[in-house]
């Protein structure tokens, strides 16, 4: 590791991370205690370590192992950008799976008790961790494994679909009931909601055309063209104006073309 | 398509279109009518406006308050000002006499650009006075023999005449000329900068010329000697002439011409050709009638046997007559044309048009002189008049060219006073002796004597094309007529190169009729006769397969004074343009067995011809060129086979002298591995067969009994638009050799590799409308999955191999793999809804919605449009795939989006000007490269009008938006009609915005301007390579497809073992020889019919692609990654310039950087770590990583 590497930067500890023992290149992990005003039970302030510049090949398992040196690790969360809220979850991994965090990311390592955090913060300078793990992290083996995992088992999927739809039905039912609930609450207020709160409808192409032609017809009926003398005069003037406008536009285009030397046929 | 057919019909039947209307006069009538109509309408308006202006002026004069209307005028600015008479005239003229405003202005600019400047004109005139003064001071010489060349050597001038001609009798004497004057284009001021040579006529005095000099080559020899003497004298006058060289007049080798470069600045711009002419009245004009014999066989061949025979010598008579009639023509031109007139400008336009097509110089050219005479002829015929605009003159001349056929009845120049010869001239005699005829005002000379039939046909073809551009509404037609240069390689669908040495050429000549006379007539140069014969044979052989056989000419030769003239080039290149409907036919059908033409047909085709019975029961003589299920790729080689055969059969031209440019680039579309199991060739059939499987699958799916009926089956796959470079073919799987899960092959995890790459076609199912769909996105997904499961169950029962995945169903059908998914159109709209803070939701463009819209709505429509393009142009598939292959081979895939490439190729087919639409992939590819090189992306919008679906307003609006919002639009702006949305109200600006919101969305993310620049350079290099090497016999075309890695900062080499698409590489390697760990000891593979195989192969597994994708995701902010998806063994990396400089430390953007510094922290890219990552992310795949040496 370079000697000019600082150990403390803006409250962050700087620690090296290698892919495996043979790797020459070393990434820098920067970490500090997670401190934000918003409280989240997933990321308690006194037990959570905030790590940035996490290389793409780090997995939860790798981090669990790396940080268990400092104390027992409860959770590891990865995000693309710093996020104090709870990690995204899904009940139905096969229908709406979690988005995978790719590339460089940030991590939140939650220790079981604050001592782990303290230990991590007192890491000696120029420490270099090694990420290697038992399961394939990268490369052909990883891609092959991913390919094989992608196939879904029908029975599990079917169960998930069933659960999800049941939940959805329950929700819509609840909404309906809530909307229909017109009784006064404790304070004597009645909550009134619009019953018509339907989402705007998509207009269909056929309809569009219909309305257009109708409007046109109406207009035609109403207007008298070429009736008064001023109308004809106006029309001619408009025609002339149109021609002039076009002339000016074309002139502009010509100057542009001239600038790009478009009149040299050789 | 339409114009192609028209031309086709014309070619065969010599103008059935023209037959019913009088040539020329019809056009006049039409324009005349227009004129009167317009005059009525516009004239009235002018008057009215004038009156109005008058009354207003009166008002103002009286001191009246400005009227209301005046206020309005003020607001609208100049637009509503009262027009002046002048302005009205200009506007009126433009409407009446021109194509459009823009066209007129462009034309004026162009003419201004190419015309000779007055300054130069004066300088040249001054120079001529000095030149003429110098010539008059030259001393008269003693008489010497015409044959002797000793004095020439003394003066350091080499004899430019052809060698091998018998000696010429007569005596030569030099005396100063009686007159030196400008003739031709300069004197008529029709000269353009595109042809820099100006003609000067030098009249020889009486004493130099004998009245019998027309005999046996004496005059031609004498004019050469006279020029040579002048040249020799000029050598000592460097202040007058900077340099001199010999060229040939119109490429005729018996007429070498002295070309001098005036000294001073003017010589850098213009050159002067010197033409000595005989004094007036020394020769009888009638002596030069074509049928006259002015050369004698006895003189030329030296044998007395044929002394009595007096064959006509049309070419020789022309070569002499040109000089004799030059003063007369010059006078005619000067009296008829006034400088600066519209006629002169019209002639200039025609000359530019010809020059851009390279038809204005060299052998077989349509010279400027012919153009001028033609315009004068039309003027006398009253087909044009001096009041017409240059544009109208241009158009009338083109119409005239397309109307008549000069090879059957050429025009005869009309004059007010018919000369003696004019009365006696027999046009039939002219037509017998010349292929193309245009008789001059004297009635003796054929102005088109040097024009061969093939060249004349080319001129007519170009004229027809030009007229079709003019009548199309496209605004770019000006450029395609006058600005764009017609490149010969991009002009022809295929090229036939005939390489003949002089000996071979003479052999071919000896097989033609009258070869002795022909050779004598050309004074030993019989090339034109040989070429015409070759063209005739090729044309007859190809029959209606061809639209045009055009000789591709090289530039006229010039050589220095003191060198011998270069050897005559007997080789010729013929550009072939095909008629796509007939060109690739397997059979050449001859006459019926009992008709008298049978013997002629049989004689022409020799042993290839055989009697065949046709389906309608008739018997015909016919020639078969291949078996019925021949692939398209092979069929494209049939014309080559035909040409080779007829050239050998008819002219005994050896196989090795004939070289064809047709298959070279197409070789890149071949796929060795697929070839084993499928008649693959260039892959068109594989695509069609894939689509057939898709059709039968969609029938199967429609027959399923689902809760909602399937209303439509559509696909967004590139296979459907015939643009998948290598469409997968069904391949049998050796099940004993793979890991299986049920009957799906899975990746071996023990270090084995995936041997084949299978590409799935994506299929989308639209269901009938139902109100029961949920409003929640994940619930919709669940319902879709439910549908997938349902289909899975049903297909399973029918014994079809089917697998379920997260968003789609994978089906193995007839050996092909399909990804089927259910689509719900309302999902696009739901994605667009965004919750607002006050608990409501509103519609808004979101990335997810746009992505979905593109994929499920726009792409299928677009795919259908391109599929119909393929139906119209059978070469489209090959073309687009070849272009994509090249883009990928130069590691640009991903950077230059595939759809963008497809669109640009489609554009080439829709707007082929100045060419015909491409009929082979090869020529489309060349034009694609040319497009990449010569497009200014900043100023050119590409409106790809698929199916003509743009409305007029769309075109106007898009052009306007392009100019006004250029900086915010993608660097490559390509729009199709399918990118525009339907809107309710066309007037509402918000709605309008919505309509054009997605314009050019395909190129929004990529390409970057840098990539466009790179592609321009690469395409330029490729084009240069082609123009230098394409016509050569032994050339490795793949050079163009092999990228150079010099420009990449890091080059990552990938191991072949895991590259599943290695078969698609430019230089495929035999992967089967590689030992596979499982292969050893396994049973010999059982061959199963791939269509009946029920084992699902590994689908869409391409480690190289996954690797590059991961690299882009992780390091895309620091570098660009380049890879060839078709089996590329290398990934090129270029660091972004910003990444290489130290930056302010920002914790959030630390990704991949490291912190340095002691007190002040900076972040720099952690190159070492990233390089290790490159290796580690691709464990098993990555081989060497090389850094560029700096």
Automatic annotation (TrEMBL), chain A:
Q: Which domain of life is it from?
A: Eukaryota
PANTHER family named among the record's database cross-references: RIBOSOMAL RNA PROCESSING PROTEIN 7-RELATED (PTHR13191), RIBOSOMAL RNA-PROCESSING PROTEIN 7 HOMOLOG A-RELATED (PTHR13191:SF0)
Entry protein name: Ribosomal RNA-processing protein 7 C-terminal domain-containing protein
Tell me, what is one Gene Ontology molecular-function annotation carried by this entry?
nucleic acid binding
GO process annotations (BP)? ribosomal small subunit assembly; rRNA processing
**Could you state one GO cellular component term attached to this entry?**
CURI complex
Q: Where is the Ribosomal RNA-processing protein 7 C-terminal domain?
A: 157-266
Q: Which InterPro entries match?
A: Nucleotide-bd_a/b_plait_sf, RBD_domain_sf, RRP7, RRP7_C, Rrp7A_RRM
CDD domains attached to this UniProt entry: RRM_Rrp7A, RRP7_Rrp7A
What family is reported?
Answer: Belongs to the RRP7 family.
UniProtKB/TrEMBL annotation, chain B:
Q: What does it do?
A: Part of the small subunit (SSU) processome, first precursor of the small eukaryotic ribosomal subunit. During the assembly of the SSU processome in the nucleolus, many ribosome biogenesis factors, an RNA chaperone and ribosomal proteins associate with the nascent pre-rRNA and work in concert to generate RNA folding, modifications, rearrangements and cleavage as well as targeted degradation of pre-ribosomal RNA by the RNA exosome.
- Which keywords label this protein? Chromosome, Nucleus, RNA-binding
Return the PANTHER family for the record: NUCLEOLAR PROTEIN 6 (PTHR17972:SF0), NUCLEOLAR RNA-ASSOCIATED PROTEIN (PTHR17972)
> A single GO molecular function, which one?
RNA binding
**Predominant location category:** nucleus
Q: Name one Pfam family in it.
A: Nrap_D2
The record's InterPro entries line, in alphabetical order, gives:
NOL6/Upt22, Nrap_D1, Nrap_D2, Nrap_D3, Nrap_D4, Nrap_D5, Nrap_D6
Regions of biased composition (Acidic residues) lie at 26-42
Q: Where is this region: Disordered?
A: 1-80, 1067-1089
Q: State the compartments where it is located.
A: Chromosome; Nucleus, Nucleolus
Tell me the organism's taxonomic lineage.
Answer: Eukaryota, Metazoa, Ecdysozoa, Arthropoda, Crustacea
Q: Domain Nrap protein spans what residues? A: 198-335, 344-485, 493-651, 677-870, 873-1043, 1046-1185
> What family, per the record?
Belongs to the NRAP family.
Q: Which organism is it from?
A: Petrolisthes manimaculis
What's the protein called, per UniProt? Nucleolar protein 6
Q: How does the record describe its quaternary structure?
A: Part of the small subunit (SSU) processome, composed of more than 70 proteins and the RNA chaperone small nucleolar RNA (snoRNA) U3.
Tell me the GO BP annotations in alphabetical order. Answer: rRNA processing; tRNA export from nucleus
What cellular-component terms does GO give this entry? Answer: chromosome; CURI complex; small-subunit processome; UTP-C complex
């Amino acid at each position: 590791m370079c000697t000019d590497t600082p150990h403390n930067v803006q409250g962050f500890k700087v620690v090296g991370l290698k892919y495996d023992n043979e790797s020459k290149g070393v990434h820098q992990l920067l970490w500090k205690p997670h401190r934000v005003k918003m409280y989240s039970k997933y990321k308690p302030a006194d037990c959570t370590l905030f790590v940035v510049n996490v290389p793409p090949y780090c997995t939860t398992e790798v981090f669990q192992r790396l940080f268990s040196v400092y104390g027992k690790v409860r959770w590891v969360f990865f995000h693309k950008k710093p996020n104090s809220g709870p990690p995204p979850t899904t009940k139905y991994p096969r229908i709406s799976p979690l988005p995978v965090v790719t590339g460089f990311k940030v991590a939140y390592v939650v220790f079981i008790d604050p001592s782990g955090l303290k230990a991590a913060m007192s890491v000696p300078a120029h420490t270099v961790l090694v990420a290697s793990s038992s399961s394939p992290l990268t490369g052909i083996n990883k891609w092959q494994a991913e390919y094989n995992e992608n196939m879904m088992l029908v029975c599990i999927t079917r169960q998930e679909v069933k659960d999800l739809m049941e939940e959805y039905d329950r929700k819509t039912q609840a909404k309906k009931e809530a909307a229909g609930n017109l009784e006064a609450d404790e304070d004597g207020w009645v909550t009134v909601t619009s019953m018509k709160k339907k989402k705007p409808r998509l207009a269909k192409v056929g309809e569009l055309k219909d309305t257009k032609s109708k409007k046109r017809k109406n207009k035609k009926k109403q207007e008298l063209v070429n009736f008064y003398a001023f109308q004809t005069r106006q029309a001619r003037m408009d025609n002339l104006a149109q021609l002039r406008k076009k002339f000016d536009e074309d002139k502009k285009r010509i100057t542009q073309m001239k600038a790009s030397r478009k009149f040299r046929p050789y | 398509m339409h114009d192609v057919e028209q031309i086709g019909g014309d070619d065969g039947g010599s103008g059935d279109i023209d037959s019913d209307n009088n040539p020329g006069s019809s056009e006049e009538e039409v324009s005349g009518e227009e004129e009167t109509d317009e005059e009525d309408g516009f004239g009235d308006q002018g008057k009215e406006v004038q009156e109005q202006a008058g009354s207003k002026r009166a008002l103002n004069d009286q001191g009246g308050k400005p009227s209301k209307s005046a206020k309005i005028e003020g607001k609208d600015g100049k637009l509503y000002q009262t027009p002046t008479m002048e302005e009205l005239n200009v506007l009126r003229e433009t409407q009446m006499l021109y194509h459009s405003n823009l066209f007129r202005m462009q034309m004026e600019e162009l003419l201004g650009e190419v015309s000779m400047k007055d300054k130069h004109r004066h300088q040249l005139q001054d120079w001529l006075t000095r030149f003429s003064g110098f010539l008059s001071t030259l001393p008269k010489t003693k008489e010497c023999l015409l044959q002797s060349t000793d004095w020439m050597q003394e003066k350091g001038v080499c004899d430019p005449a052809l060698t091998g001609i018998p000696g010429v009798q007569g005596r030569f004497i030099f005396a100063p000329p009686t007159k030196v004057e400008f003739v031709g284009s300069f004197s008529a001021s029709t000269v353009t900068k595109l042809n820099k040579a100006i003609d000067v006529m030098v009249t020889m005095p009486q004493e130099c010329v004998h009245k019998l000099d027309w005999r046996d080559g004496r005059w031609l020899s004498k004019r050469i000697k006279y020029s040579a003497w002048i040249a020799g004298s000029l050598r000592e006058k460097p202040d007058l002439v900077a340099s001199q060289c010999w060229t040939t007049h119109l490429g005729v080798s018996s007429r070498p011409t002295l070309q001098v470069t005036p000294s001073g600045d003017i010589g850098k711009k213009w050159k002067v050709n010197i033409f000595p002419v005989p004094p007036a009245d020394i020769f009888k004009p009638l002596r030069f009638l074509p049928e006259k014999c002015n050369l004698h066989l006895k003189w030329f061949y030296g044998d007395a046997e044929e002394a009595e025979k007096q064959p006509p010598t049309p070419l020789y008579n022309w070569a002499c007559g040109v000089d004799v009639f030059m003063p007369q023509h010059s006078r005619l031109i000067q009296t008829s044309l006034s400088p600066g007139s519209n006629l002169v400008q019209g002639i200039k336009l025609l000359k530019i048009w010809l020059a851009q097509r390279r038809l204005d110089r060299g052998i077989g050219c349509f010279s400027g002189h012919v153009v001028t005479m033609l315009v004068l002829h039309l003027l006398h015929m009253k087909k044009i008049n001096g009041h017409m605009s240059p544009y109208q003159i241009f158009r009338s001349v083109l119409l005239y060219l397309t109307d008549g056929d000069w090879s059957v009845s050429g025009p005869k120049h009309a004059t007010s006073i018919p000369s003696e010869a004019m009365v006696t001239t027999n046009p039939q005699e002219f037509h017998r002796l010349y292929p193309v005829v245009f008789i001059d005002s004297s009635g003796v000379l054929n102005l088109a004597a040097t024009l061969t039939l093939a060249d004349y046909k080319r001129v007519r073809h170009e004229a027809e094309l030009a007229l079709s551009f003019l009548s199309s509404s496209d605004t770019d037609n000006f450029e395609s007529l006058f600005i764009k240069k017609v490149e010969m390689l991009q002009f022809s669908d295929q090229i036939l190169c005939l390489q003949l040495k002089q000996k071979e050429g003479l052999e071919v000549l000896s097989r033609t009729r009258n070869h002795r006379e022909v050779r004598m007539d050309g004074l030993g140069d019989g090339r034109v006769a040989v070429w015409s014969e070759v063209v005739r044979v090729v044309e007859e052989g190809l029959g209606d397969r061809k639209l045009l056989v055009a000789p591709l000419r090289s530039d006229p030769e010039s050589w220095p004074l003191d060198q011998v003239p270069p050897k005559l080039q007997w080789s010729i290149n013929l550009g072939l343009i095909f008629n796509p409907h007939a060109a690739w036919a397997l059979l050449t059908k001859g006459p019926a067995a009992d008709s008298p033409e049978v013997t002629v047909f049989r004689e022409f085709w020799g042993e290839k011809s055989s009697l065949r019975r046709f389906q309608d029961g008739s018997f015909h003589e016919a020639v078969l060129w291949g078996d019925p299920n021949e692939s398209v790729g092979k069929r494209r080689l049939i014309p080559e086979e035909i040409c080779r055969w007829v050239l050998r059969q008819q002219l005994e031209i050896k196989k090795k002298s004939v070289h064809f440019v047709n298959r070279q680039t197409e070789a890149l579309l071949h796929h060795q591995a697929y070839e084993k199991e499928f008649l693959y060739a260039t892959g068109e059939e594989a695509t069609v067969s894939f689509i057939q499987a898709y059709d039968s699958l969609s029938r199967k799916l429609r027959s399923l009994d689902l809760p909602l009926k399937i209303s439509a089956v559509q696909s967004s796959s590139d296979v459907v638009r015939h643009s998948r470079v290598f469409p997968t073919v069904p391949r049998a799987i050796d099940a004993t050799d793979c890991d299986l899960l049920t009957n799906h092959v899975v990746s071996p995890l023990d270090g084995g590799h995936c041997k084949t790459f299978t590409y799935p076609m994506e299929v989308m199912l639209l269901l009938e409308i139902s109100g029961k769909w949920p409003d929640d996105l994940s619930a919709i997904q669940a319902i879709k999955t439910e549908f997938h499961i349902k289909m899975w169950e049903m297909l399973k029962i029918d014994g079809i191999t089917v697998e379920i995945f997260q968003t789609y169903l994978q089906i193995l059908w007839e050996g092909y793999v399909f990804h089927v998914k259910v689509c719900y159109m309302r999902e696009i709209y739901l994605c667009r809804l965004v919750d607002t803070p006050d608990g409501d939701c509103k519609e808004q463009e979101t990335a997810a919605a746009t992505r979905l819209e593109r994929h499920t709505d726009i792409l299928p429509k677009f795919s259908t449009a391109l599929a119909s393009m393929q139906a119209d142009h059978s070469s489209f598939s090959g073309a687009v795939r070849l272009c994509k292959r090249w883009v990928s081979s130069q590691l640009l895939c991903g950077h230059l989006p595939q759809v963008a490439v497809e669109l640009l190729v489609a554009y080439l087919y829709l707007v082929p000007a100045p060419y015909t639409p491409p009929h082979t992939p090869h020529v489309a590819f060349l034009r694609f490269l040319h497009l990449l090189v010569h497009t200014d992306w900043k100023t050119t919008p590409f409106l790809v009008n698929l199916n003509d679906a743009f409305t007029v307003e769309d075109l106007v609006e898009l052009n306007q938006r392009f100019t006004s919002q250029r900086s915010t639009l993608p660097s490559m702006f390509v729009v199709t009609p399918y990118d525009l949305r339907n809107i309710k109200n066309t007037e509402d600006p918000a709605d309008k915005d919505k309509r054009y919101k997605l314009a050019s969305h395909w190129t929004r993310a990529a390409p970057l301007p840098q990539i466009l620049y790179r592609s321009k350079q690469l395409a330029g290099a490729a084009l240069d390579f082609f123009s230098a090497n394409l016509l050569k016999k032994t050339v490795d075309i793949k050079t163009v497809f092999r990228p150079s890695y010099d420009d990449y900062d890091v080059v990552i080499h990938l191991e072949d073992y895991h590259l599943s698409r290695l078969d698609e590489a430019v230089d495929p390697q035999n992967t089967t020889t590689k030992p596979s760990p499982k292969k050893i000891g396994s049973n010999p593979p059982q061959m199963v019919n791939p269509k009946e195989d029920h084992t699902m192969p590994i689908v869409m597994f391409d480690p190289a692609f996954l690797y590059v994708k991961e690299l882009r995701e992780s390091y895309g902010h620091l570098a660009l990654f380049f890879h060839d998806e078709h089996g590329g063994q290398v990934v090129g990396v270029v660091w972004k310039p910003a990444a290489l400089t130290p930056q302010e430390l920002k914790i959030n953007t630390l990704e991949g950087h490291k912190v340095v510094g002691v007190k002040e922290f900076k972040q720099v890219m952690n190159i070492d770590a990233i390089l290790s990552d490159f290796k580690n992310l691709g464990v098993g795949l990555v081989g060497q990583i090389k850094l560029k040496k700096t």
